[in-house]
Amino acid sequence: MAGRPRALALWLLFGDDLLTNPRKIVDQRRTVAEDAAKLTDPLVLEDAGRLITAWNERQARRMPMLFAPTIAAALSVRHHFLWVLCPGCRAVRDIDLRMLNCNRESTVTCLTSQIACGSCKSNAIFPQELLRLSKTGVVEDVRKACARRMLE
What we know:
There is one protein chain. The chain has 152 residues and is mainly alpha-helical. 50% of the residues lie in helices and 11% in strands. The protein has one domain (44-151). The chain has helices at 3-14, 16-20, 22-60, 71-76, 138-151; strands at 81-85, 92-96, 129-134.
């Protein structure tokens, strides 16, 4: 008997669909949310691209870090590689963000405590410095630069 007033209240609020087929309402809400995401997708990509460009410029100038892009934003505009510098041995390497098992909504700055230098193992002494987000890895970038020099 106690469930009837609640069912009546739900029926008054949502109509017959909720009481007869709650999955239908969930599916309708899901399709509305997916359609909204598709409409904003180009805008989100454009904003993510501008954010990453601005962050890379600030990092290159060694300006104070006021913001940081999320891993999801970097992956959405295909900046799959995060370049880091080890202050201990001064080695520059890249990290493939696609291979990380972490929350995609966290910022790239959260990775500094999880990154260890492969050559000097100095992550306990020095946190790794983030250099930039890139579409190519360090090795690919060096190969392209060498190829350009050979053509000149």
